[in-house]
Amino acid sequence: MSHDLMTKCEQRCLFKINDEKIWKWVEVEVSALTSGEQTNIRCVHCHGRVRVHKQNVQHGPKDHVEHRVKRDSENCKGGHYFKGEHKMSQEPVN
Q1: DSSP 3-state assignment of 74?
Q2: What is the rounded distance in angstroms from the CA atom of residue 3 to the CA atom of residue 33?
Q3: In this structure, is residue 91 part of a structural domain?
Q4: I want to staple 73 with a disulfide (CB 3.0 to 4.6 A). Which of 23, 62, 66, 67 is the partner?
Q5: Has residue 67 been placed in a domain?
Q6: Is-contact 22 15, C-beta < 8 A?
Q7: Nearest CA to 7 among 80, 45, 64, 48?
Q8: Structural domain tally of the chain?
Q9: Does some domain include residue 83?
Q10: How many CB atoms are located within 10 Å of the residue 86 CB?
Q11: β-strands 8-17, 50-53: how paired?
Q12: Are strands 64-67 and 50-53 parallel, antiparallel or unpaired?
């Protein structure tokens, strides 16, 4: 079942500020993304790698992301396997 804290993630987006192109992380709803593997998204809480899961049936889990690395899930307050002490990912997506 999807975790309530994992319905959003951060997506890396390109902005033009003062005629300069700058990449920034922006919080987005998972429902705005496509399903599967994406390299430009990360967990909003621990900055670890995540994958997108879309709702396939009406009574199934809602759109959400899940950590690709179990260690991140165990150490992140949004993770399915959270063990109680929040830590940032040891391999963050930058």
Answers
A1: helix
A2: 17
A3: no
A4: 67
A5: yes
A6: yes
A7: 64
A8: 1
A9: no
A10: 13
A11: unpaired
A12: antiparallel
Q: What angle do CA 6, 69, 63 make, to 5 degrees?
A: 25
- What is the torsion angle, in degrees rounded to the nearest 10, for the CA atoms of residue 33, residue 39, residue 42 and residue 47? 180
What pTM, to 2 d.p., does this model score?
0.83
Is 35 inside a domain boundary? yes
The set of residues, in sequence order, having a beta carbon less than 8 Å from that of 33 and lying 6+ positions away, is 9, 11, 41, 52, 63
The residues near 26 (Cβ < 8 Å, ≥ 6 apart) are: 10, 11, 12, 13
pLDDT tens digits along 35-50: 766 779 999 999 999 9
φ, ψ (nearest 5 deg) of residue 9: -150, 180
Domain interval for residue 23: 4-75
